[in-house]
What does this fold into?
Amino acid sequence: MTAIETTIKEIIPRARNVKSFRVARGDGFEFAAGQFMRVTVPVAEGEQTRSLSFSSSPAHSDYFEFTKKITDSGFSKKLDSLKAGDPVKIKGPMGRFTQRDGENRVAFLSGGIGITPIRGICEDIIAAGRGVDMVLLYGNRAVDDIAFKEDFDAWEKKREMRVVHFLEKAPGDGSWSGRAGYITGAIIKEEVPDYMDRLFYICGPTPMVEILKKILTEKLQLSDERVVTENFVGYK
It folds into this structure.
C-alpha cells in the first residue's frame, strides 16, 4: 500500500450527479483493475476521507481515475468544487474485486455507481487484448443516471463486450431500447444462457448485491467460488 500527495488532472461528467476525477499517477503507484483507494480532501473541519474504486485501467501511465456520485455531504461538496491542479491525497490500493487468471468468460451485474470498478476491469481487459468474453447487465433508475454509457456503448459497437441496460421504469415514449425493471434469475438465464460457464462479478448497493448473489447461488446453482462481490455501503 502506498500513500501519495498528488493533483487533479481532469474532471469528467459521467452522468447526472456523477463525476470522474483523473489524478496524476506518478512513478511507483501500482494497482489492479477493480481495486479501491482511500481519497482524502481538505474540508472546513480539517480533512475527510472516503473509499472510492479505481474506475480506470492501470494501463494509463500518467493518471488513474476515481468516480463519485455527488451528494450533499461535505466530502462530495469539496470534490465538486475541485478543479485541475488542486491537491488530493491517495492511499492504496486495497481490495480483491479483481480479475482472475485463466477466466475467459465473465459476466458483470451492477447497479448505479457500483459500475465504477467494473468499468476499470472492462477497460483493462480490452486494452490488454485478452479476448475475454464479457457481458454486462447494468441497472439504473433513469437514462440520465447511466454512468459511462458512451464507453460501454462504444465497446459493444466494436463487439468487445455485450451490454444490457435496465431501467426501473422505462420512458413511455418508445425511445428506450433496453430492458425495464430489475435483474432477475429468469432474465439472467435469458441474457446469459451460458451462465454456468461464467465467472460472475456483482457490485452495487449491499441489498442489491445480496439479492443477486442469492439468485446466482440458490436459484441458478452456481458455487460461491463462481461469484465475486463488492458492496457499496453508502455514497456520502
In short: DSSP finds five helices and twelve strands in the chain. The domain at 105-232 is CATH 3.40.50.80 (Rossmann fold). The chain has two domains: 2-94, 105-232.
